[in-house]
Each structure stands twice: as C-alpha cells, then as structure tokens.
Specification:
Keywords: Molybdenum, Oxidoreductase. InterPro entries: Ald_Oxase/Xan_DH_a/b (IPR000674), Ald_Oxase/Xan_DH_a/b_sf (IPR036856), Ald_Oxase/xanthine_DH-like (IPR016208), AldOxase/xan_DH_MoCoBD1 (IPR008274), AldOxase/xan_DH_MoCoBD2 (IPR046867), AldOxase/xan_DH_Mopterin-bd_sf (IPR037165). Its cofactor is Mo-molybdopterin cytosine dinucleotide. This is Xanthine dehydrogenase family protein molybdopterin-binding subunit. The protein has 797 residues and is an alpha+beta fold. Among the domains are: 203 residues, Aldehyde Oxidoreductase, domain 4 (2-Layer Sandwich), CATH 3.30.365.10; 147 residues, Aldehyde Oxidoreductase, domain 4 (2-Layer Sandwich), CATH 3.30.365. Strand 28 and strand 29 form a beta hairpin. Helix 16 runs parallel beside helix 17 and helix 19 crosses helix 20. The longest helix is centred in the C-terminal third of the chain and has 28 residues. It is globular, with a radius of gyration of 28 Å. It starts with a strand and ends with a helix. The structure holds pterin cytosine dinucleotide.
Amino acid sequence: MTATDERPAEQAHEIGTSRTRKEDQHLITGHSTWVDNMVLPGMVHLAILRSPMAHAKITSIDASGARKYPGVVAAFTGADFADTQGNLPCAWPVTPDMVNPGAPSLAVEQVNFAGDAVAVVAARTKAEAVDALESIEVEYDPLPPVLDLEAALADGSTLVHPNTTSNKCYTWVFDSADAGSGASMDDARRDAEVTVTRRFIQQRLSPSYMEPRSTLVQPVDQGVTIWSSTQIPHILRTMLALTLGIPEHKVRAIAPDVGGGFGGKITITPEEVITTLVARRLGKPAKYTETRSETLEAAHHGRAQIQDITITAKQDGTVTGLDVHLTADLGAYLRLITPGIPLLGAFMYPGIYKFPAYHLSCDGVFTTKVPTDAYRGAGRPEATFAIERIMDELAAELKMDPLALRRKNWIAHEEFPFTTVAGLTYDTGNYEAATDKAVELVGWEDLRAEQARRREAKDPVQLGLGVSTFTEMCGIAPSRVLGSLSFGSGGWENASIRMLPTGKVEVVTGISPHGQGHETGFSQIVADRLGIPFDDIEIIHGDTQSSPKGLDTYGSRSLSVGGIAVVKAVDKVIEKARRVAAHMLEASQDDLEFEAGSFSVKGAPGSSVSLPEIAFAVFVAHDLPDGMEPSLNSEATYDPVNFSFPHGTHLCATEVDTETGRVKILKYACVDDVGTPINPLLIDGQVHGGLAQGIAQALYEEAVYDDAGNLVTGTFVDYTLPAAPDLPNFLTDRTVTPSTDNPLGVKGVGEAGTIASTPAVVNAIVDALRPLGINNIQMPCTPERVWRAIQSSGAND
Ligand code: MCN
C-alpha cells in the first residue's frame, strides 16, 4: 500500500510517493548481515592495545607475554609490520607545501594520541584476545601533550611529530579580489559603517553511528576479501591495494549491512589495515570489532575549529564584506580527507547572501588528539553556523529584525542562477517561499508576542527565537572542480541496468547505503522511468565484485549523482529496447512512443509491445534487428555538472530558565527545499535524523580531553547523546524548486537538517538572553554554561 502525498492521486507516480523502505523488511526481521556476526572457518579475533598516553616515545615494547596466553594465536607490534604497513592514505594535498608526517596504523616509535594503536593480539575468541592485551609490556617516555590550537602554532611549541618543523599542516587562503569573484575585503573593512566580530568554537564531536566499526578479512589467493562496516567499499578497495601493495584486482571489498556512518566510516581506518596485515601474516581470516569506548577514543572526530569571523555592513543593513579565519584541529594524523574538511565549508560562509567581498584563511594544525575527518555536513555545518550566528549578531547591532536583515541581503529567486562571492554558481532557489512558509508553520508572530510578554513580565523563563536560512553545497562534485582543489579522486558515479528475460530488473549502483533507504528511492526512479512495477526491481550495491565501479556514499551525493547515473543507464536501456520494439512492430523508431513500460505506434494504440516482451525477445534472440547484440543491459557513468544546492529556513523557539540555565526547545519548524522529492518519507527521515544531530551539537554533545590529553568522554555516560525524549516534535514542510542541473531536478537532503539546525537553536538561546547583554554562548549550551553566562552578565546580582 502506498500513500501519495506530493501529487494528486490521478497523477500518482512512484516519484513523489511516500513509500516505506523495502530494505527495512530484512533489517527488522533479524535477517541483516552485520560484519561482527559473521564467522569464517579458522577465524581469529583481534584486540588492539592502545596508548594510554597522548604523546610519548615508545622506549620498549614486548608482546611475548601475550603470545603465551591461552587461546592466543599471535601478537604483533608496530615493529612487526614496520616494512609492510605503509601509511594510511590521505586523498587531499590541499596545498603543494602541505605537511603530511605520515600515519602508521600501528605506532612504531611514538604515540600521538591517547588511543593510538600500539599492538594487536589474535586469539581464538575475542575474550582471550582482550585478556592477553594486559600482558603486553610497553614503556613510554612521555612528551608534553599538544592540546591548545593556538599554543600549538606558537614558536617553540612542542612538536607533535618529530619529522616536522611546525605543528602547522597548511595555510589555505581564499580572497574574492584575487579570485576575481568579488571586491577587496580590505576596502570593505575601511568603508564599513558597521563592523561586528565574533569568535565561535566548533567543539569536537564523535560520529555516533549505531553499529561500531567492524572488519573481517579473509586472505584469498594473492589478495584478500574484506568485509567492513564502511561507507566506501570502492575507495577502500583501491586505497587498501595502494597502501599495502596488494594488486587491486585481488582485493574484494564488501560493505554488507552497515548500521549508520554519518561520515565516521568514510575513511580508511587503521583497524582495517591492521586486520588485513594480521590475516595475511597468519593466512587465516581475522576479525576486529571495536567497543563503543574505542569508537569514542580512536575513531575520528568531527568539527573542532576556532572561527574568527568579521562582518561589515552599511547602517541600512546591506552587508559589504565577510572575513573568516579558521584554526582547524586536524588531530594527530591525516586521515582520508582530514585536511579538506574546513575547505568544504570555505565555499559556504557567504551562505545565501550577496556579499561583495569575502576573505577566508585557514590554518590546519596538528594536535595530540584523535584525528578529525568527516562528520555529517563536514565543514558546511561549521560555515552555516558562523554565517547564521553573525547575521543575528549584525541584526542585534543594527537593531533590525533578523528575518528582515536576511531578506534584505539574500539572493532573490529571480536572480538565479547566481554566482556567489566564493565562486559557486547556485542554479536555483527560492528563499522567500521557504521562509514565508516556515514563518507561518511555526507561528512566528505569536511567538514574538509571547516573547515580549515574558520580557515585560520579567518572567524567569524567557523565550528566544532563532533563525537559520541556509543553503549548502552537496552532491560532491564535478570531477574537474575536485581536481582544481587537488583532491585525489573524481566526483562521478556509475550505474548499470541488467534486464532479465522475464522483465525484472537489476540495478547495480556504485553508491553504498548505510541507512538512507537507497534501495527504495532508486527503485522508485527506475519504476517510474521504465514503467516496471516497484517490486520487480532489485538494487545491488556494496560489493566490489558485483558492483565494480563507484565512489560510494557521502556528501549527500547518492541521489543527485548516483541516482542520475541510474537515470542515464535506464535511458540507454529504453533506446536499445526502442530498436527492438520498432523491429517487432514493423514501425520506424521515430513513430514509437514509450509510456508506462510499453512502446506503441503513435496513432495506433492497439499496436504495442511491452518491455518484458522485448526483454524476452532479446533473451531468445531469434529475431533481432540486424547487427544488434542480444542484450538490453546498459551502463552509465555520470559526472555532475555542478554541486547541488538544497536550501531551507529553520526556525526555533527556546525557553531559557534564567535561574537554572535550563534550555527547552518549545517549537522547531523547518521548510526544506531539496528540489524534486523522490520519496517524501525518506526525506522526512533524513531531516529528522539530521535535526537530532544538529540540535545535539547545540545542546548536548562534546568530546572533551583533560589537560593530559586523555579523552574524558569515553563512554555514552559522559558523551551526551540525546535520545528521542530529549528532542522536540519537529514541524517539517517543503518547498520545491527543482535543480536545473540534473534531469530529475533533485537536490541532496542527507545533511540538510544537521547543517541548518545548530545555529537556529543557538540563535534562539542568545536571543532569549540578549537583554542581559549576552551575545555568545559556547556549545554545547548546557544548563551549566548558560547559567554561568547569566551569572557573569550580572543579571541575577
Ligand atoms: N531523497 C529523496 N528526494 C530528494 C533527495 C533525497 O527522496 N530530493 C532521498 C534519497 O533517495 C536517499 C535519501 O533521501 O534515500 C538521502 O539522499 P542524499 O541526500 O542523496 O544523501 P546520500 O544518500 O548520499 O546520504 C549521505 C548523507 C550523509 S552525507 C550522511 S553523513 C548521512 C545521511 O546521508 N548519514 C546517514 N543520512 C544518514 N542516514 C542514516 N540513516 N545513517 C547515516 O549514517
């Protein structure tokens, strides 16, 4: 049973229909395949010994005790693999002079964060492997930890890596005057009638996927089969081959069911390499699954930036310039795209606004903390937070309504396509429509009246209203753009269609779902386009043997790049089928029309042939057009012509108890525009999940290190992950402004909620407290932080 909610019933198609997810059937009936549940004959289980110190020389390490332990098959230290382990790959040079000190999977001479892997034990059971870890003897000579970003950049700072001369990895600069995309920021500063500067801190966050990372490696022939809880099986295959010198055609990578990733599984992990090394050394299958504490301690973190931002404007509110300096905490090593994360945001600081001048500089800094890399939004939430917070600060400075300030400066819908000062060309958007709808949805005017009432009454529980009018760049990206940013890969995606003799369809895609519902969304696209029933379509993914070509899932690219590859492949099938249909109907191809899965002769509707009939005719191949190969199958590789630019308006009303610091989200409404909706139910799910993560950054989550560099939020008792009761009921709606850059008109949605929501919440909290003279609160805005801010404002004296 399907419910259409975006189209009138008489026009019901698959596209636009809220279908429940076909993949859920096996997930909720116990038929899923998680790597950790897999057992292979002769398999050993691995446990990893991790450094208890943030920064230290390894003066001696002896694993012989572990080798004597019951059940232990082998124990290895970094020295055992010193010649074979290579360095973990980093795909992003960023600048030609960028420093990459190297990243061994198992530390050999030095550890650089608490949690760095130093030894691995292989045993018959996981418990035996874990028990044996305690008999490995390691002596460390401690070095001072490098924790503070600005101190790390100062002359004379302790170096994280002895083979470097500075903790700075790179400096990257964008200047609109130099790039030719805008005016000079120096001029904007000089001529400014109003200048507002703020420092925002993006705290470290842990991508808290439901399934911890797990890897199983089976040595095969001269290579391996690796099952991994990864977002990127195709990239894993290539990178594993390059890192370990295994011929790529001897590596098969499989991502079976994957229980979430949120960017946290987009890297080649030390654990994947270690498991491969051990399996190959022993000639036995080896499996490693992290504990939740290992996730928090040793899987990469996200965000971790200091943002110094200045906005210049005229008294009437017209913005004239934006200057941003980022200090980005890269952590101890470069993982797959660590250095590029701040850059993904660099293009988004101007947001939806018409800034004449823009300057951004970014220092990437090594510290003795776990490396940072992608976390849902990766650079774009940080940028959106900074621009949407500073717009509210400017509005306050000018005593303007924050929505009025935005309306004055945003790109009007008739101005698209619009090239921003950062050099991006937004194809379409309608910020007015989304904002008007959101204002209506949340009841903005009533909330403002209630806020005034509480202020007047000196109510201890004040009300604040927060705005976030955002866009983002996703669908990353045209390959030539990635090339211009020195990224080590393209941005295309691949799909193929296999027409089976009975008219059923297999769709092979290079994207790799881990919770997004692609099997459902892609089936809807194919069903609509081919006129084949939804249930007759199978989506194949996540195994480099059955789906040999792809660039996987991240950056909200799967639909707007992978989905379009599917469309292109489907169109090739239709063209092949048209030739056969013309032959079967004894008509010219030009006289045929294709609708609802059948070709018919124009003007002669009785004369038709269906796709399943054609598929069978091609299968038996008794009477095909001359020279035609007996196959309708097709393949397409699609390189997008542009990023996709979803946008929306998120409005938040929070209560702030000025006596206790408690923050409660009273109402949260968002209107997102993701172009053509393929499946509104999937979109809502994506927005809801995204909102939870964005709100979590604003109110709850932070990875905290102590002064010695130990992670003190090493369990979910200390790392506050909100659950459903901690979140409000979300009011969601949509506007539809189709993209003009792809044939479906779609834009991405996977990161939108996370990107938009954090500033909406913090703007609301600051709005509640602004009468007390408060104009900034450090995230997460815990009751203690809010209470302290109120105390230091003197309001309760
Ligand atoms: N969709 C749609 N119509 C649109 C846009 C999208 O129906 N106009 C649907 C798509 O068909 C797809 C889903 O929405 O089922 C998300 O599509 P898209 O925006 O292309 O994003 P991706 O599929 O590439 O997913 C990646 C994105 C990212 S970057 C993170 S991080 C994230 C996210 O998706 N991690 C997730 N959502 C997640 N959801 C779950 N459950 N688990 C994660 O780890």
